[in-house]
Amino acid sequence: ILRSAQNDIWENIGFVAGAGNSNSPKEYSYEDNSELNGKYSYRLKQVDLDGKYSYSKEITVELSAIPAEFSLSQNYPNPFNPATTIRYSVPVTLSPVTVSLVVYNLLGQEVATLVNTQQPAGNYEVKFDASGISSGVYLYKIQAGEYSAVKKLMLLK
């Protein structure tokens, strides 16, 4: 796997072993976990068993900025039925940090735990499927280190 920062200088960033000769389709994947910002191109170098190689077409992606502070966005859509999306950001200052995102009813009872894991800096989104609960107003709360925020969401069936 090769990456370029739009300057025609390619760097090798990873390797994915192939399945050898096969007459059935194979799927391969690679995740670039480096904390980069900007526009980058990627291409694959296919090396055959006899040592011959070829390059795939380039793909270009725009990597978003690493957030500078915690944030919890209003869910969208709101009101919703039966699913909604909640977005939040984890800054690089405390990365990685344990993030907890929980939905509560208005009595303070936990309805769903959407996230409860350690996460590196980045922008995240979580889908909340509320098809198993009744219509009403609910609260969702994020807790990450010292940061805490609460927002309302409304389920209309």
Report on the structure:
With 157 residues, this protein is mainly beta. It is 0% helix and 49% strand. It has strands at 2-4, 10-12, 38-43, 45-47, 53-55, 59-63, 71-72, 83-90, 97-104, 110-119, 122-129, 136-144, 147-155. The chain has a 4-stranded antiparallel β-sheet, with no helix packed on it. A 4-stranded antiparallel β-sheet has the order 10-9-12-13, with no helix packed on it. A 3-stranded antiparallel β-sheet has the order 7-8-11, with no helix packed on it. A hairpin with a 5-residue loop joins strand 1 and strand 2. The chain starts with a strand and ends with a strand. The mean pLDDT is 87.
Write down the Rg.
Answer: 21 Å
Largest sheet: 4 strands, antiparallel
User: How would you describe the shape?
Assistant: elongated
Strand order of the largest sheet: 2-1-3-6
Helix fraction by DSSP (H/I, runs of at least 4): under 10%
- By DSSP (H or I, 4+ residues per run), the number of helices equals 0
What is the number of E strands? 13
In N-to-C order, the SSE pattern is: EEEEEEEEEEEEE
Outline the low-pLDDT stretches: none
**What is the first-to-last residue Cα distance?**
47 Å
Strand content range: over 45%
